[in-house]
Each structure stands twice: as structure tokens, then as C-alpha cells.
Design a protein that fits this description.
Radius of gyration: 23 Å
Number of helices: 20
Helix content: 55-70%
Distance between the termini: 56 Å
Length: 514
Amino acid sequence: KDPKKLQELTQIATRMEGMYGSGSHCTGEGDAKTCRDIGQLSEVLATSRDYDAQLDAWQGWHTISQPMRKDYIRFAELVNEGARDMGFADAGEMWRSGYDMSPAELAAETDRLWDQVKPLYEQLHCFARGRLDATYGSDKGQVAGGMLPAHLMGNLWQQDWGNLWDMMQPYPGAGSLDVNAALRAIAQADLASERAKPGAPGATAAQREVEAERAAALVTAKKMTERAQDFYVSLGMPKLPQGYWEKSQFIKPRDRDVVCHASAWDMDMAGDVRTKMCIVPSEEELTTIYHELGHIYYDLAYNSQPPLFQGGAHDGFHEAIGDTIVLSMTPDYLNSIGLVDKPAVSDEAVINGQMRMALAKVAFMPFGLMIDRWRWGVFDGSIKPDQYNKAWWDLKAKYQGVAPNGARGEEFFDAGAKYHVPGNTPYTRYFLSHILQFQFYKALCDASGHQGPLYQCNYANNPEAGKRYWAMLSKGASQPWQKTMKELTGKEEMDGSAVLEYFAPLQTWLKEQN
């Protein structure tokens, strides 16, 4: 309520977000100075299998958050004061209040859901440890008594293990699903076609090449986005408005620093929807586009509601919409849009497909929980500023079973190296969405008349599934989420059993392997 404090809060928030957006790790001096941004450092973790190079990249990114620490301590004080002004005990309680249940009930509910799916995660964790040992040697493949080394998981935060496919693939070559190669081929063809066009009059060869590369990158990014739009349209949903294609940011601009973290925007609650991404031709980016369009279609569906109800049934719903579509990106679907060959039908191919999905979905779940467990503790005072980093790694050990390869003292602020912390975006929604998306998927598969194992279901082009989904999206926040959930799934509660049903073949296989 205090204007001076509000101004201070806004300035700190903007400063931290700016530090993150412009974050890079620099080495060397003067002319020999080289800097790498989050994309370049992530690329090292994704593609290098050089232990020291990966460690250097991981540690390098985690230097960007050290200067945020002092700001974050003050930031937490100020947001807490604001939450108390609004009648909440602290900011964490405020975050937990938006779920049509008490904040305490929500905390207990997330524990219950985690307990449902935890046995599957533990099997995946054990298998990953064995593969890391085999690749790096048992002295480097695990740390601190069976923990996974943070810098070897192919991702800065160990939240998605998809980049470890080369070592985690159960049956090399069975039902090959190399979507990256197909997207790179499309990008190469687009580049060749742009190079063949006459450049601007008077432009040098180098200038023409840069312009061709930019133009081709944009063409490829829009093609990938059109693929995602096609899926939604095949369910009977409308095409995206023309303004979307004109005003969205598809590729990284050349003239300024931007936060490349993908996001979706409803600018006027009346159809001016946009996404902001720095799209590159990779499978990870392709699935991110399908995810972001889920937000956009939710926005469009509930735009007819009064402003107060223009939101997700709860914030986990918003995150689950696009991912429910991603689950339908089966090998058959990817083949139908020309990104993989006709998939081989074999038990090995099934396990490969399941592993591919688990590295993204199952690996994520404990991370989706721990990040807010940390912030709830910071906000309620049980995690003191002089324990920020220790508490962060304690929670990562408890939930994810990951650890750094050496001491990370309180001179570091490793939480701030994840966008959602300086950006102050609540994160429990992402955990809930990983439960909900499988529930929604099962409901849509049932609606589409799918027969057979759940993981085989692809409901693209099914108007009945589309009608049921659109009806749910249109409700927005106009009724308690339990009612919206029941209308789609027949049940009022969130439930992890669809996750276990989906991954049943993989869980059985992992138990045998382990």
C-alpha cells in the first residue's frame, strides 16, 4: 500500500528480470573476452559429453544469479508485506489461495499426488544413474551417495532429461524418432530457398547471407507454428487470428536483449493473442509451440466470459492445455505430419517411445514441486536468507535426487538461475499440470473412442474430443475447477493414476532393468 515501497518492489523486480534476460558467462579479458548466453550454455549441456565442459557451462550460468541475492532478500520482504496488506499470512499463502481449497489443503494435495507418481520417478532415477555411471565412470556418474550430478542431466535445472537420449535410449534405433533431424532438414531447405532470392540492391555478400539466414529462420519458425495450429484446427477449433502471425515474436531479434523464455499473451482479452519465443528448429521447441498455443486457445475460448472469469479453472489447468495436445504427438501423429518415418511396431519401439516421453514428463515432476517448496519456505520465514542456497540444494536432493559435484555455499544464489524465481512466477502450477494433462488426455481419448493402450492414443482430427475440450476451455474460471474437471473427466479431484496407466509398460521394464 505504501507508494514508496511499491516503487522499490517494481524496481527490484525489473532489475532481477533484466539480470536474467541479459545474463551471460564471460571468460578472458579485452579482445580475448568471450561471452556465452543461456542458449549457448544450454547447448553445451545438451550436446557435449565432456564432463569438464559441461561443468564449466553449468557453473557459468549459475554465476548470473549471484548479484540477485541481496535484491531477492529485500524482494521477499516487500511481497510478503503486500500479501499481508491483502489479508494473507505471507506471499506463499496468497499463491496457494487460488485453488478453491484452503492453502493448507493444497499443500497436502500436492504431497498426495507426488506420492502417487514417485515410485515411477524413482525407477527412472535409478536407471539414469546406471547410464551415467556407464558413460562417465562410477566416480563421476553419481555424487553424494547415489545423487545424480546436476551438470550431467542435459539441462541447467535437471528438469528435463530429454537431451540424455543418446545414453538413456533403451533400444538404439528401435522405432527411430529423430524429429530434430527432420526439422533441421526443413530449415536447410528454407535457407537454400532464401539464398536463391536476389538480395537488397548494393548489399555485400555477407549482408545478403545474414538477411537470408534471418528470413529463413522466420519461415521455419512460422512453419513449425502452423503445424501446431493444424492440430488444434483438426479438433474443430478456429484458426489463429491474422494479427497473431503479424505481431508475435517468432525468432530472437538482432537489435536488443530479450527474455527468450517462451510465453503466451492475451493483449486485450478480445482476440489480440501473441506468443513470444526465439524458435530454433528442434523437437523441444516444437513441443513448446504446441504448449504455448494451448494458452492461446484457452484465452480465445474464454474471451466470451466476463473479465473476472477470463482465466484458467486454476493455474495448473492453463499449463496443462497444450501439454494434453503434446501427449497426442505419438509416433503415428509425427509420421502423419512428415517428421518421422512410418513407425516400427515392436515392444522395443514402445519402450523407446515411453522413455522419450518420460525423460520430459516424469523427470520434471519433482522439480515442479521443489521450486515452490523453497519459496513457500522463504516467504513463511522457515528458510532464512543465510540458508537460501543450502535449503535449495536440500530440496533438490529430497525431491529430485540431484546434487552439485562440489560445495555450493551461501555466496551463491542458485535459485535465481531459474527464470521463474527472479520473474516471481508461481511454479506449483507446472507440477499440477503434469498430473492434469494425463487426466485430460485420458478423458479426450475416451471421448474419441480410442481402443487399446492409453499411450497409443492420438485424437487429432477427432471432432468429438475437440468439442469436449472446447467446452471445458470456454468455461474459464467461471465455476470451481472441481466442477469443470468433472464435466470433462467424470471426477472432481486431481489424480495421478492416468500417469501410471500411460507409463505402465516403461515402469515394468525399468523395474526389470534396475
